[in-house]
Amino acid sequence: MKEPIIQVKNLVAAYDDRIVLDKINLDIYSGESMIILGRSGCGKSTLLRHMIGLAKPVDGQILVRGRDITMMSEDERIEILKNIGMLFQSAALFNSMTIGDNVAFPLRAHTDLKENIIQIMIKMKLQLVGLSGFDKFKPAQLSGGMKKRAGLARAIAMDPEILFCDEPSAGLDPIVAAGIDNLILKLKKAFEMTIVIVTHELESVFIIADRIAMMHEGKIIAIGTKEELQKSQDPLVQQFLNRQADKEEIDREKHLNSILG
């Protein structure tokens, strides 16, 4: 098998004296969609923060293309992050900027592109996420789903090799959420990106995942394809999958009832 693009080795993380990641090991391969799955508080968002260098571990390594980001200087880490896109759970748009300026922000900060080229890039990225013509809008003028799309446009502004997404469909109704999931898949194919997604929503998992790493109380308890996890004999895995399936069926029924009045 080819070398992983990301390697997490014996990662330990703590808040104060509480261990929140306990010797995590995870390999992620170029071009795959890896879903980090688990209920709230299991440590999945903390793992993501460490993988993009926003937090420093107590112990362990995180290798990106064979380079340990936990040991890099700030300048070295910034260079690595130029090849990484990030979609935050809230989209994290700058409310004082237009959508176009939000998309342009990393291009202006990290490249020497001329402004006319940047304007072309803005239009291209917004078109890719279905927001053509919204470059002059402010975030407050957009719906939740449109904000996520704008956040995606900014995340892919520099054609990243790796895209991280934190709960990309959280807080969206099922139809809008499915649209975001399908958009992520479309962008993965268009840019041949490696995608790492943190989520607790099974519908997203079954649309997007090549492989899944399931977390429980700071540990990875299972890694495999959708089919492999569904066949797992681990009671924690089955409990999560069955409980989530029941919850999503209830949510779909509520959504249908709201449409029908």
Describe the protein.
- With 261 residues, this protein is an alpha/beta fold.
- It folds into 2 domains: 6-83 and 161-260, P-loop containing nucleotide triphosphate hydrolases (Rossmann fold, 3-Layer(aba) Sandwich), CATH 3.40.50.300; 95-159, no CATH class.
- It has 9 helices and 10 strands.
- Helix 4 (115-128) packs across helix 5 and helix 6 runs parallel beside helix 7.
Mean pLDDT: 87
The overall number of domains is 2
H-E string: EEEHEEHEHHHEHEHEEHH
Structural class: alpha/beta
* Superfamily (CATH H level) name of the largest domain: P-loop containing nucleotide triphosphate hydrolases
* Low-pLDDT sequence parts: none
Q: Class of the largest domain, according to the CATH hierarchy?
A: Alpha Beta
Q: What's the helical proportion of residues?
A: 40-55%
Q: Main sheet?
A: 6 strands, mixed
Cα gyration radius (Å): 19 Å
Q: Estimate the strand proportion.
A: 15-25%
Number of strands: 10
The CATH architecture of the largest domain can be given as 3-Layer(aba) Sandwich
Principal-axes geometry comes out as globular
Strand order of the largest sheet: 6-7-8-3-9-10
